[in-house]
């Protein structure tokens, strides 16, 4: 088991409905030493990708993305969630369905902060069905920028997002892939990587 899998095993709480709670170290209280190790690992996995910008989505991607960005020495842009706005020519807009809140949000990024010269590493905390990622990918594509890679802390491999995104041809690296989890026994199985 790697450092993140060990931490999930120790402190993760499995909830009904395929939700893994990791708010003691990742989603609410944040373990910065752990984030730093994640940054080191992503830097290692994307060392030849020539990343010049990191893109994430609020809220829980931001903390991780900032620490990861220190390893790449690049700025972080986060997509902002908004209920609904009038289409504004200055923004890239994508619609994202929230896995945890079961509602739809628009996410927006100012055109000032991403353009065709950017080679973007997308970072997020979780990958479930892939809606958040699809939204971020559509923003990068609308900007004419390049997706240099995608780094996810925890992928729930029993949901469809990972397969969909890999089939689209993106280099997707997840530090921990949960292949199954059981809220009754508390057992978590990780994919061998
Ligand atoms: P997706 O769009 O891939 O279906 O879901 C990804 C987003 O939903 C992530 O940004 C994350 O915030 C949230 N999410 C999905 N599954 C989980 C989960 O099991 N636990 C937590 N804490 N967040 C999740």
Describe the structure.
- This protein has 193 residues and is an alpha/beta fold.
- The longest helix has 14 residues, at 32-45.
- It is built from five helices and ten strands; from the N terminus they run αββαβαββββαβαββ.
- A hairpin with a 6-residue loop joins strand 5 (91-97) and strand 6 (104-110).
- It has helices at residues 3-11, 32-45, 60-72, 131-142, 161-167; strands spanning 13-15, 19-21, 53-57, 76-82, 91-97, 104-110, 119-127, 146-156, 172-181, 188-190.
- Helix 2 (32-45) packs across helix 3 (60-72).
- It is 28% helix and 34% strand.
- The protein has a single domain, classed as Rossmann fold, CATH 3.40.50.
- The termini are close together.
- The strands form two sheets. An eight-stranded mixed sheet has the order 5-6-4-3-7-8-9-10. The chain has a two-stranded antiparallel ribbon with strand order 1-2.
- The chain is globular, with a radius of gyration of 16 Å.
- The structure holds guanosine-5'-monophosphate.
- Guanosine-5'-monophosphate (5GP) is lined by residues 19-22, 27, 60, 99-100, 124-132, 156, 161.
């Amino acid at each position: 088991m790697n450092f993140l899998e060990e931490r999930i095993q120790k402190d993760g709480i499995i909830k009904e409905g395929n939700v893994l709670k990791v708010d003691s170290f990742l989603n609410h209280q944040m373990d910065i030493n752990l984030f730093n190790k994640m940054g080191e690992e992503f830097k290692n996995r994307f060392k030849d990708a020539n990343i010049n910008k990191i893109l994430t989505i609020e809220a829980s991607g931001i903390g991780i993305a900032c620490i990861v960005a220190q390893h790449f020495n690049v700025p972080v842009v986060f997509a902002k969630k908004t209920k609904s706005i009038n289409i504004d020519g200055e923004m890239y807009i994508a619609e994202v369905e929230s896995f945890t809140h079961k509602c739809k949000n628009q996410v927006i990024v100012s055109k000032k902060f991403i353009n065709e010269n950017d080679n973007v590493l997308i970072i997020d905390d979780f990958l479930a069905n892939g809606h958040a990622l699809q939204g971020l990918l559509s923003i990068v594509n609308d900007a004419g920028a390049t997706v240099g890679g995608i780094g996810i802390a925890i992928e729930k491999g029993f949901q469809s997002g990972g397969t969909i995104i890999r089939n689209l041809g993106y280099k997707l690296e997840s530090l921990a892939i949960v292949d199954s989890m059981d809220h009754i026994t508390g057992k978590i199985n990780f994919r061998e990587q």
